[in-house]
Specification:
Layout lengths: L3 E5 L7 E6 L2 E6 L9 H16 L5 E6 L3 E3 L4 H6 L8 H20 L4 E5 L2 E3 L1 H8 L2 E5 L3 E3 L10 H7 L5 H10 L3 E2 H7 L4 E3 L1 H16 L3 H14 L4 H17 L1 H12 L9
Parallel strand pairs: 3-4, 4-6, 5-7, 6-8, 7-9, 8-11
Antiparallel strand pairs: 1-2, 2-3, 9-10
Length: 273
């Protein structure tokens, strides 16, 4: 049986439960009822994701949160408290949104695939968190929204991740109306990969993680970086770039081993080189 290491962070503003089983690192938001992205929560998440990226024992990262709320976005009480500052909160607001942007980019730039396991509501920056992950699996009960327009605050930073998942009109529908969509609609929009019964959510995510963890970690790193770089390029530039990536990938020891194993009809032994 794989070793399980569990640590619970005691920071009342943003605790995370950390568990590693084999090559899968599970980061569980544990700040109910809202699992809000306070500064402490964002710092803790970013630190663990960056640590996972450098840890050779980690192959896949899972972001999860049990219960009715996956993540309700930014901590509005924390933000509102700083309106009493001399600058009406400008410095704190700048720090909050900069930290949030850094967290989302850390997920995208992490060399390990990141999977969102969504059981409940993902709203505003919580939806941004889901959309920033490489894969997302949702329970039938999960819901999603960008409700900033209801309170006079357009979800501009969540829009970045949302518009890179959904089509323009689907993204604008969510942003302009602020209405909540169900898991089936989120799948139709491209926000999640699969929608499953709640009782099978963890099982399905673990299956994804185990499948991915069985691959060459170097190949996953190369592929994830290339995916996000080429998707922002024009067609010709994308082909030029990915052709170069393929050449370098072919020269890697893991590619040599993988192709040799396929030809020799044996199981490859990955070295991450």
């Amino acid at each position: 049986m794989a070793e399980v290491v569990a640590i619970k962070r005691q920071d009342a503003q943003g605790p995370i439960i950390i568990e590693q089983t084999g090559g899968t690192l599970r980061l569980t938001l544990a700040n109910p009822p809202a699992n809000a992205l306070s500064l402490a929560m964002m710092a803790a998440l970013q630190a663990e994701i960056e640590r996972a990226g450098a840890d050779r024992s980690v192959r896949v990262v899972v972001l999860a949160a049990p219960g009715k709320v996956f993540c309700a976005g930014h901590d509005l009480k924390e933000l509102t408290a700083h309106r009493a500052d001399a600058d009406r909160g400008r410095a704190f607001f700048e720090r909050t949104f900069a930290d949030c942007s850094a967290l989302m980019q850390a997920i995208v730039h992490c060399p390990k695939p990141v999977i969102a396991e969504v059981e409940g509501l993902a709203t505003a920056a919580g939806l941004q968190l889901v959309a920033s992950c490489d894969l997302a699996v949702a329970a039938h009960e999960a819901t999603f929204c960008t409700p900033g327009v209801h309170i006079g605050l357009f979800c501009s930073t969540p829009m970045v991740a949302l518009s890179r998942n959904a089509s323009r009109k689907q993204a604008m529908e969510m942003l302009l109306t602020g209405e909540t969509i169900d898991a089936a609609t989120a799948k139709e929009f491209g926000l999640v990969n699969r929608v499953v019964p709640r009782e099978y959510l963890n099982q399905v995510v673990n299956k994804y993680a185990e499948t991915i963890a069985s691959k060459s970690p170097l190949t996953l790193k190369i592929g994830k970086e290339a995916f996000y770089r080429q998707v922002e390029m024009g067609l010709s530039d994308a082909y030029d770039y990915t052709a170069g990536v393929m050449v370098e990938n072919m020269l890697a020891r893991d590619a040599e081993e993988g192709i040799g194993a396929f030809v020799g009809k044996r199981k490859p032994e990955w070295k991450g080189e």
